[in-house]
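QA checklist item 7 of 12: single-chain prediction sanity check.
[x] sequence parsed
[x] length recorded as 139
[x] structure emitted
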Amino acid sequence: MFLIVLAIALTIAAGVIAFKLAVFALPLWVAMSVFQYMHGTDTGIFMPGLAAFGGAVASVVFVIAVLAFANNPFFRLVALGVFAIPATIAGYALIYGIAKNAIDSSIALNILGGIGGIIIGGSAIAHLNGIGVAFFSRI
């Protein structure tokens, strides 16, 4: 019983941390992919790091630009969805990884991980939409 309560408490704590950092899931994945590709071409460390930073910034700028200039709600939702899919996957993996040591039922683990992933993906959509609205309301 104690392990289940501990798993729930750790899940909530990790969820709060992931809630705050969910916006950075897509830029992190883009940066890692660009870095691995550039590093595989034997360009050293500095240039892949610079390219990874540029790719991460470009992904955020692209989504915020779509949010700013797209009048169609479908395009805005697609842009937010593209940004939220990595956050949803990361949230699922985070919650599943924490809870798998305390809960034996695979059905309960998948349900708990799915709920956590949906909540964290939704928070990424809300945070990014708030960033886009706040950024372009000042212009």
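[x] summary fact logged: The helical segments are 2-21, 25-40, 46-69, 73-99, 106-137.
[ ] second reviewer sign-off
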